[in-house]
Write a structure and sequence with these properties.
311 residues; alpha/beta; seven-stranded mixed beta sheet; 7 strands; globular
């Protein structure tokens, strides 16, 4: 009986989500459209309820293993710090570009002693991040545009960005801004959703509509490829040597189904957010399934980038 109820609930989620998905979209229009989307997701509290304070994917190990959804997100931050070589003394200044509601920023300040400045395009995210940050923790939040950061050149020892790049309409400008505010000799560490390099293997007939939906549903103008973005970073002529990259698609892949599963194992959300909240939640299911398809098939990749700024 229990398995039947779960099956019926999954069917309801899929059908309801598909209907809402087909009727609405959140296409990228401008930085304001991104800010509006994140303001809405933050105000209703649904995303935070199911995903926690880390609005990014989790790291499930290599090879991936079963893990608590939220613990995987904490583990991702630790793995990114390690992979990025951020063995820095306490008080090292760090800019978190695209900080969400500040989960990574707080970890970087609390667990690693960074003096964190964190920026997002969403005023509501800044408000919520500030609410969640304990007094005395060296992490402050502000509204800023990653395409035109308000900081002077050579301001930070480390620049960190996680899953912000897909919202940037001009990846070359984004690359320049990340490096411009980094001090000479400072470290850049970026983790992002990327697509396969279509210069080498063009998208086929089924991949094109899938990619369009992934862009339209979550206010993304476009995805870069790992190869393309690393080339843009190097083209700034602000990088010492070469940009180092990795693909963490396998390590993060379980996140997509786990994020859907949260709606099953946390039914209290139905009480907390009511029917309208249920509809808002299930409308994301088709996109999450398409993301699982894209990352599992190689259409999308999880790009990791690290670089040192030239002296």
């Amino acid at each position: 009986m229990g398995s039947l109820l779960v099956s019926l609930l999954l069917l309801l989620i899929f059908v309801g989500g598909t209907a809402a998905y087909l009727l609405t979209a959140r296409q990228y229009d401008s930085a304001e459209s991104v800010a509006t989307s994140y303001d809405e997701w933050t105000q209703d509290g649904i995303l935070e309820f199911y995903w926690g304070e880390h609005i990014h994917l989790g790291h499930y190990g290599s090879p991936p293993r079963q893990k608590d959804f939220r613990q995987a997100k904490y583990d991702f931050v630790h793995e990114m710090v390690k992979w990025g070589g951020l063995d820095c003394p306490p008080g090292t200044t760090l800019l978190d570009v695209g900080c969400g509601i500040g989960g990574s920023s707080r970890m970087l300040a609390k667990d690693y002693g960074f003096d964190v400045t964190a920026v997002t395009i969403s005023p509501q995210q800044v408000e919520r991040a500030t609410q969640l940050t304990p007094a005395g923790l060296s992490a402050k939040f502000m509204v800023d545009d990653a395409m035109a950061l308000s900081f002077p050149d050579n301001s930070f020892d480390v620049v960190w960005s996680l899953e912000a790049g897909p919202h940037m309409p001009d990846k070359a400008v984004f690359a320049r801004e990340l490096l411009r505010v980094l001090k000479p000799g400072g470290k850049l560490v970026v983790g992002d959703w990327n697509q396969r390099d279509d210069r080498r293997k063009p998208l086929n007939s089924w991949e094109k509509p899938v990619m369009k939906q992934l862009l339209d549903q979550w206010s993304h103008p476009e995805f870069s490829s790992i190869e393309g973005f690393s080339e843009l970073l190097e083209a700034t002529e602000m990088v010492r040597g070469q940009v180092e990259t990795a693909d963490w698609a396998k390590e993060t892949l379980p996140s997509w189904i786990d994020s859907i599963w949260q709606g099953i194992i946390r039914p209290q959300g139905l009480v907390k957010f009511g029917f309208s909240g249920f509809i808002k939640s299930v409308r994301e299911v088709p996109t999450l399934l398409l993301m699982r398809l894209a990352f599992g098939s190689g259409l999308c990749r999880f790009g990791m980038f690290r670089a040192v700024k030239a002296q």
